[in-house]
Design a protein that fits this description.
This protein is of the alpha/beta class and 484 residues long. It has 2 domains: 9-226 and 446-458, Aldehyde Dehydrogenase, Chain A, domain 1; 231-418, Aldehyde Dehydrogenase, Chain A, domain 2 (3-Layer(aba) Sandwich). The chain is 41% helix and 16% strand. The chain has 15 helices and 15 strands. It has helices spanning 5-33, 38-52, 55-69, 74-92, 133-143, 157-174, 191-200, 210-217, 241-253, 273-281, 290-300, 319-326, 367-380, 394-403, 476-483, and strands at residues 99-101, 111-117, 120-124, 147-151, 181-183, 203-206, 223-225, 231-235, 263-269, 285-287, 336-340, 358-364, 384-390, 406-411, 453-459. The strands form 3 sheets. A 7-stranded parallel beta sheet has the order 10-11-12-9-8-13-14, with helices on both faces. A 5-stranded parallel beta sheet has the order 5-4-3-6-7, sandwiched between helices. Strands 1-2-15 form a 3-stranded antiparallel beta sheet, with no helix packed on it. Helix 3 runs antiparallel to helix 6 (157-174). The protein is globular. It starts with a helix and ends with a helix. 50% of the residues are buried.
Length: 484
């Protein structure tokens, strides 16, 4: 039943009052944090990392999220906690974030940079990574002397309280203000509260769907958000197909594809297509026939071709359950479903994002053809996010990297275990993957603690570097061409 304008106004008023109280407490705590030393923030972040990743706690968080959300795989979520929390901490360990720093974005001769906190951070979080995101975002804020208020997805609001309580207990034990990390009470987790938090905070760190990120950027508060994921991976046949299939299946089945970085679309050169399918099937993937594809499509996108709204019942479920919902008989142990597609769009939905262990597969003639199809997919969904290629030819990599409208291009690696950082990649470990202006984002990199810092730049006089005449810095051949 639709609510009345009066009811909506009352909810907004309640949310404004509730968030106002949280922000008030956060500002008091953050004022204390402004006087923290580098040793203080390094102790805090180390302690939070250690305490929140104790084996029994990681297991509890993972199992709680699976139970509360009905999504994902607990064992994989434990691995995600270690990978993201440990990884992000190790990357910030021993790095300066207080006072004079040497790695500020703008530097140069005669410039000294001083790192400062932003204030109160709004941490907007998804359900898909609800186990690691609150810990990572809290540690990012603590490293930078900010306070943070977390707004969880409704399907992980109970777990969020448990995690935040653990962080607050750690802060209290060390003698630091608990209110540096707060969360919304479960009864206040709703759209109005999240919107009000984004309005009252000093900065927004948002991870979630397209609508949420658009709300963050239109809130009037400075923000970093992540764009829609719809990763495209190209298989050239130039590397061992068994290795390729192993990487793709590991990536696609991980945590039931809760990551926005799984191989949603696989473009396979036609001369190695049969071998690709064979190796994928040997690892638990199943290729749907035309009839099965039609059933799967209707199950995943009930309104197709009118829209691309996913059936929530299939999101982050395992392949066998999705097949059962679609009325498809698959072999026991099936972990990935595949369906052939041609192009992308409302009439070709398998070319878009799926948030499940389901991949669209398309035959391509060569790399030029693959790039053409990749762009069709990315123009439909996921522009700016990521792509991948399996090849042993550096020329292929350079050609793809030059052409792809994405911020991350992965070579011979499983995408979901690479894009957001990991133990075998140089990408910064992050829960917020910037997608550049292609994805409607303000940054093109994986957001880290450095994105939660303001900088004061001090300039001192350097030797004058003004040239005597234009010929001193414009090449003679340019002058000759202009003056001819």
């Amino acid at each position: 039943m639709a609510s009345t304008p009066e009811e909506r106004a009352a909810r907004r008023e309640e949310a404004a009052k509730y968030i106002g109280e949280l922000v008030k407490k956060a500002r008091v705590a953050q004022k204390v944090a402004e006087n923290f030393t580098q040793e203080d923030v390094d102790l805090i972040t180390a302690a939070v990392t250690y305490n929140l990743t104790k084996p029994e706690k990681a297991k509890m968080f993972a199992e709680m999220l699976v139970e509360e959300s009905g999504m994902g795989i607990a064992e994989d979520k434990v691995g995600k906690i270690y990978g993201k929390v440990w990884g992000s901490y190790i990357m910030m360990k021993d790095k300066k974030s207080v006072g004079k720093v040497d790695d500020a974005p703008s530097g140069g001769k005669g410039i000294t940079a001083y790192a400062k906190p932003m204030g109160v951070i709004a941490g907007i979080m998804p359900v898909t990574n609800g186990e690691a995101t609150p810990i990572v975002k809290s540690n990012m804020a603590l490293k930078t002397r900010n306070a943070i208020i977390l707004a969880p997805h409704p399907k992980c609001k109970k777990l969020n309280v448990v995690i935040v309580d653990e962080i607050r207990a750690t802060l209290k034990k060390l003698g630091y203000p608990e209110d540096l990390v707060q969360t919304c009470d479960p009864e206040h987790v709703n759209l109005e509260t999240s919107q009000e938090l984004m309005k009252q905070a000093d900065f927004i760190l948002a991870t979630g769907g397209e609508a949420l990120v658009e709300t963050a950027y239109s809130s009037g508060t400075p923000a970093i958000g992540v764009g829609v994921g719809n990763c495209v991976s190209i298989v050239t046949g130039k590397t061992p197909m068994a290795d390729v299939a192993d990487m793709i299946v590991r990536s696609k089945k991980y945590d039931n594809a809760t990551s926005c970085s799984t191989e949603n679309n696989i473009l396979v050169f036609e001369d190695c297509f049969d071998e690709f399918v064979k190796e994928m099937e040997a690892r638990g993937a199943y290729m749907c026939n035309d009839e099965e594809k039609a059933k799967l499509q209707k199950t995943m996108w009930p309104n197709t071709p009118n829209d691309h709204v996913l059936n929530r019942a299939i999101v982050a479920q395992n392949a066998e359950k999705i097949a059962q919902l679609a009325g498809i008989d698959v072999p026991a142990g099936t972990v990935v479903l595949m369906a052939m597609e041609e192009g992308a769009g409302l009439d070709h939905p398998f070319g878009g994002e799926k948030l499940s262990p389901v991949s669209g597969v398309q035959k391509v003639k060569d790399l030029d053809d693959a790039i053409r199809v990749m762009n069709l997919c990315l123009d439909y969904q996921g522009k700016g996010h990521s792509c991948g290629i399996h090849t042993n030819d550096p020329a292929d990599v350079e050609k793809l990297a030059m052409a792809a409208p994405v911020t991350k291009c992965v070579v011979n690696q499983p995408q979901c275990l690479t894009n957001s950082g990991g133990w075998n990649t140089g990408f910064p470990v992050s829960m917020t993957l910037g997608c550049g202006t292609w994805g409607g984002n303000s940054v093109s990199h994986n957001a880290t603690y450095k994105d939660l810092l303001n900088y004061t730049y001090v300039s001192e006089e350097i030797p004058n570097w003004k040239p005597e005449k234009v010929e001193d810095f414009i090449d003679a051949d340019v002058i000759a061409k202009v003056d001819a």
